[in-house]
Design a protein that fits this description.
By secondary structure, this protein is of the alpha/beta class. The chain has 4 domains: about 150 residues, no CATH class; about 60 residues, no CATH class; about 180 residues, Rossmann fold; about 180 residues, Rossmann fold, CATH 3.40.50.300. Helix content is about 40%, strand content about 15%. The radius of gyration is 28 Å and the shape is elongated. The protein starts with a helix and ends in a 5-residue tail after the last helix. The chain binds zinc ion (2 copies).
Amino acid sequence: MSITEAYERISKSKINFSDNRQDFNIQSCVRDYDTNNFTGLFDHNETMLFSNIYPYVEGRALLADELYNLLKMIGEDTQHGQTPEGTSSSVEANGLTTDMALLQKFLIFTNALIIPSVISKKDKFMAKIMEEIFDQDLSNQFKNGCFRCGSKDLLETDCPRCKRRCFVCRECLKMGEARSCTPLFLFSKEQNLQLKIKISPEASFGQNKLESMPKGKLDYDYKSDDLLENLPHLDFDLTPAQKEAYDMASEFLDREEKKALIFALCGGGKTEAVYGAVKKIIKKGGKVLFATPRRDLTRELSHRLEKAFPGIRINTFYGGFKNKLSDGEFVVSTTHQLYRFYRAFDLVILDEADAFPYRGSNNLPLLLGRSLKKDAKLIYISATPEKSLLKETKKKTAYLITIPARFHKKPAPLPKLIKVSKKGMEGNNGKFSKKITSFIDKNLDLNKPMLVFVPTINLAEETSRRLEKYLRKQNYLKKQEHLSNDADNSIASIVSFSHSKDPKRDEKLIEFTNGKIKILVSTTILERGITLEGVRVLVLFSNHDVFDDRALVQMAGRSGRTGADPYGEVIFAGEYITKAMKRARKLIDRLNKEALKKGFIEE
Ligand SMILES: [Zn+2]
Ligand SMILES: [Zn+2]
């Protein structure tokens, strides 16, 4: 069964789409397709209107409500004078939300794929379409589920839309109702791979359409070469390790592999390494997605990219952010937002691919497959890549790019793995193991800040108190003459704790950064993002489940980041040595050795 046959079969079957306001009759759209002859179907004005709105919907997966809202938003956007000269007014854009015949013509013009949002039972035609849409072999795993988000978690309810019982996707509920009676519109950005293209020359997406499109922000192909030639803007030089990765990532686009892995040391500067590849895609008129695991990272990245790529329109997507137009060349989003796209991107960069939410998710890999154009490229970035991905690089199905060194050309501190009894790490009454206290004493003497990681919130508070007790017993302040005269300094202010529920955590972080707090006991909340000169890292209870290899590499990655004090020190203390501890050490060691071999670092 070909995909075209499957689609024809589905579109002829009796699926009645309806919602409260409008009847979407898939059959009436499809009947028009079946005539195979659209000559004269669209008049000039319609062609202009549709061509101008198309860039806003192409590459998107939209529920009926979302399509309405988007069309309204385009109306508002165009009202504010942002549309290129001589194109549609808001009234016309809004026309699509009120005039059913016009909307149906638009759907025909854009060759939208219209399918039920969820399917609730096994159906071989639907299964075929599902594989096509998510671009993977789902033979035994996906018999029913949601086309919008890839979830299989459906619920049968009385439906206010179709007034019968139908299925709704639970996963989608917080971001709109995906139901078996509600259509999902998929607007491909791939002009040649549409499922059924038999449109007249006037309406086709080939040469004719491009000629009819006015020049303006909607048209990627007209970016001037001058503008692009000077990109990206960097206010620093790339390190030799970054430069090599930068060139390899650009070169990857011309290689056979569809996937690449950028395996980077924490603090190696991984983001800049993809700039060349991004530029290359934009230059060709293509579209790029840069997805990160969290909102704060997305916001920060978006600012950075705006500086590096001035003149390029960057659309940012994360939960709760209002402006959801995606008509730019460059989309920056959280991984969760992948549910918005369909065959949209020529290049997708997936940052921290080994982290939540991507790792362990069933839906997100499906949505990633759906967001890519068929000939698109995918770059994973990680400091702790999954074994399966590393294996692929060995089998040459994924292209390996490494950034094994930091800018200061010194190796990353290799964690020391030590065994300490539970009691020795708990430190009741300040009685810690000698192995722990020697680390504390030495670094206090050297006046180096210490980050002590523990697995739980309780332990963070307790360990902080017990370290305080230890220092009291040591008469620490009396030994430090320069501190004992300072009224502002008590032992309580030298040791502190931080965790997600601590209301003072921002203040404490500032005190730690400016040197007032010398020992900060923290949960994994500080495992990334903090860069502090000279910081030493001790992980207690490293054998605990929360400390997987990824977390351990991140925590170790806090140390030795700055040029003034590049060596640092990292200790993983556990009741026993776990596989995760060994693997974390091995990953860091591997990059150090490679950096040495390539001459990126001096020992
Ligand atoms: Zn319904
Ligand atoms: Zn869903």
